[in-house]
Amino acid sequence: MGMQHNGYERPSSRPPILRPFEMIGFIVAFSVLVACAITFLYYMLVFGSIRIQGRQTATPMLLPTFTVLPASPTPLPAFTPTFTPAPTFTPTPPCIAPPGLPIYTVRPGDTIVSIAAATNSTDRELRIWNCLMNINVILAGQTLYVRSLPGTPRVAFEPQGMNERGSNQRHVAVSICNGAPQVSIRFINLTTNAQRFLWDFGDGTSSDEVNPVHIFTIAPAGETRFSVTLTAYGWDNSFVETTLVLSFSASCP
Hints:
The protein has 253 residues and is an alpha+beta fold. Among the domains are: 20-52; 103-145, Roll (Membrane-bound Lytic Murein Transglycosylase D, Chain A); 157-251, Immunoglobulin-like (Sandwich), CATH 2.60.40. It contains three helices and 13 strands; from the N terminus they run H-E-E-E-H-H-E-E-E-E-E-E-E-E-E-E. The strands form four sheets. A six-stranded mixed beta sheet has the order 6-7-13-12-9-10, with no helix packed on it. The radius of gyration is 65 Å and the shape is rod-shaped. The relative contact order is 0.11.
């Protein structure tokens, strides 16, 4: 008599058998878990320490500390303010000349100093009366207001150390026993209202100095005479001259 089944199957008492793909998944999961555990222990040994004293305690891992230093600022260059002084303004004196002043014409070689001396004026008067910005710059032919025009030269001179002998003669006695018969004479110019001078010493020599010193060569005995002439030229190129006769008496006492 055969066994009948009524749609109900009796459960088996054998443990379930894992299929091959389930076994492979289990192995892989277990391997990953072991690898994670090993990795965790490795990092714990490297960066920390584990001590087991009765129970397992973990020493906290010390993290490195960093000190942030403040950045040292680069010093800026020192600022020194500069001040440009305002230009000074010197007012130009007005051109005011008293009425009736004579007019002088500047000639070659003239200077403000020489014109002032010849016209009885001052440098300041000439600058104000004629609006001169620079008194050192004047031109020949330029006209200037002056206090008075230069007069005609009055020429005169005296040989120093000689005695008067008449109105136009001067004399001196010279003792000459040794050496060359020469006498040195200094001339004092007493001329007024003159611009330039010319001396003729009567021995073939001349000079244009104001107060020259001249050496005369005289005879060793007797009297020697020289006619000395001084010519004075005025501001208008007029001239006046005068002559003195110098006589030297040489002797050897």
